[in-house]
Design brief:
Number of helices: 3
Helix content: 40-55%
Strand content: 5-15%
Structural class: mainly alpha
Order of helices and strands: HHEEH
Low-confidence stretches: none
Largest sheet: 2 strands, antiparallel
């Protein structure tokens, strides 16, 4: 019983210690552009590559999305590269023996 009471007292004290006073802020901001204008600017910046992404390591250019390739064409390209690489490995194995 004493342990339960002590646990409850400690839990209550810990939650009270974590409580903070609410922060107030000024609500007098007036926007000069509409939401549609902002969205349009972001989409244009993405399209021409001038949109920077701010991350943990700083500003980096946003990745360019390449259109025109389907998932199947990319898979076929990767499989072709893998076959070529395997063929190259097979032709080189045993052709050079050190010593």
């Amino acid at each position: 019983m004493k342990t339960t009471l002590a646990t409850l007292v400690l839990a209550f004290a810990a939650t009270a210690a974590m409580a903070e006073t609410p922060q107030s802020f000024k609500d007098d901001f007036t926007s000069t552009r509409s939401r549609a204008e902002v969205i349009s600017e972001v989409l244009n910046a993405r399209a021409d590559g001038s949109l920077d992404v701010i991350g943990e390591i700083g500003a980096v250019s946003a990745p360019t999305i390449l259109l025109g390739k389907t998932r199947d064409s990319v898979r076929a390209e990767i499989q072709g590269l893998a076959k070529t690489r395997n063929a190259q490995r097979a032709s080189f194995s045993g052709s050079y023996l050190p010593g």
